Fold this sequence. Notes:
The structure holds 2 protein chains of 2 kinds.
Chain A: H1 2-27, E1 30-31, E2 39-40, H2 44-49, H3 53-85, H4 91-99, H5 106-117, H6 123-131, H7 143-153, H8 159-169, H9 174-182, H10 187-198, H11 200-215, H12 219-225, H13 236-245, H14 249-274, H15 279-284
Antiparallel strand pairs in A: 1-2
Helix pairs in contact in A: 1-14, 3-8, 3-11, 3-13, 4-8, 5-12, 8-11, 11-14, 13-14
Chain B: H1 2-37, H2 42-47, H3 59-67, H4 70-101, H5 107-115, H6 126-135, H7 142-152, H8 154-166, H9 170-178, H10 183-194, H11 196-212, H12 215-220, H13 229-234, H14 236-239, H15 244-279
Amino acid sequence: xxALFLAPVLILFGGFFVYPFLFTLYASLTRWSGxxxxxxxxxxxxxxxxxDATFLLAMKNNIIWALSHGFIQVPLAALVxxxxxxxxxGWRFLRTAYFLxxxxxxxxxxxxxxxxxxVQFGLINEFITKVMGRAPVNFLGNPDYALGAVIFQAVIYIxxxxxxxxxxxMNIPKELYEAAEIDGASTLQQERFVxxxxxxxxxxxxxxxxxxxxxRHFESTYLMTGGGPAYATTTMGxxxxxxxxxxxxxxxxxxxxxxxxxxxxxxxxxxxxFGKSDPMSEMAQ
Amino acid sequence: xxKKNRFASFVAHGLKWLVLGSLLFVALFPIxxxxxxxxxxxxxxxxxxxxxxxxxLVENYQKALQMASLPRLFLNSATASGFAVLLNVLVxxxxxxxxSREVFKGRDLLYTVITAGVLIPIIAFMVPYFxxxxxxxxxxxxxALVLVYAAVNIPVSMFLITSFMRSIPKELEEAAIIDGCxxxxxxxxxxxxxxxxxxxxxxxxxxxxxxxxFIMAMLLTTGLKSRTIQLGIRFFTSQFITDYTAMFAxxxxxxxxxxxxxxxLHNRIISGLTAGAVKG
Lengths: 285, 280
């Protein structure tokens, strides 16, 4: 009976997680165009990838994404969360509103942002030309601006990290703030000496998650620039998809393996470096 | 001294609302802009892309519905996400029941392995998914999307549902066993009905993912018979080339299901998210 109840999940998990993982791992060691048999060749695809300028560019962009996620998005989210923790008027509404972009499809949002960035009729260029009196900027079409433009667009997703930090912040015992206030700590000092240290563990979690999302970044950039212009905004995910499109399935699989290793490896590594030390759990003991 | 303090608190307040306001602006303004422009004429849009409509044109929405086989795309998306949610919640609740209420060797390991699936970047699986779905003869079918959407959400659903089921008191089940309830009845009569709240949370996550998905639909379908709304609006640009504001109206329509789900269930979504991440 137990087996019968577990079977459907095991079949789906096996078919769409375990099998694909092993398949990708093996396919990455072969020569294979998607049609016909795979021929085992060893690590050749990996050697080729690390000489492949496009892939190296994708990796570099993923590192930029990971850093910007971890050290721009999370700090902004933390700032908002710390303000909302003081429960200003309408904080519940604000919490819901900040998260809203996360439930709207990337297709819809990137179509809007592409319109806003558009060089002929985009609102941002309307501002630049009419108000500032400067020449219009082709944000998504100019290799110098494109990466910055897609990274800036991702700021709309800070709501996710804000919610994580906010939830942890609400668990900080009120007594700590009361004690600090009795000791004469100002609001800023309370944030500095109570909130920040109490949330250290949560920040590590949020930064780790955010960086892992940076490594797997695909959708919004693919939809806004397709990885261009001249691969300026490409990422490993986009590189994988384009290689697949060009029937280079084995190399695409090697990119997949690197994507999995760097995505999950980053999480494990950061946990090891920063430790899981969380004042909340230490206090509970 | 008092004057100085008042000034400082004024500045602090100003800074606080400046931070909140500017980030809220970046997050929400594009949606407001889209909404307002979906009621304007193309001529107005050409003059300036930032103004209220002279007259609110509901016709844009009628045009959108007629031009792009939008009803068909809606139906396809609703079918794929609806069945994906049903399948995902059903299988996760069955397995969640065993993993939360039964004791056996390897149980915790199994739970850890399944929930660790969230760490996998799904885009890394584009090659095997394409190859598997093709070999199953499911390429370009809605069934392919149902299977993939249901499967991809298993780690999240298993986490949410299993932890919810763990919180149901043992006594309820023990009473049922004394009354003669067997294994299957403990699931159908006790655990399944009592975990509805957890099932709805898991289902909501699965629905929002499925409704909004672009990558899997692009990878696994090609024709109109299985084209989802997200793929459809992506290719609107060619159909609508002269009629931007009708396209904006169409995009607004596609947002409605997931935004409505969020409006009604945002508390569950927020608590579901925090349960996962804070523990993580």
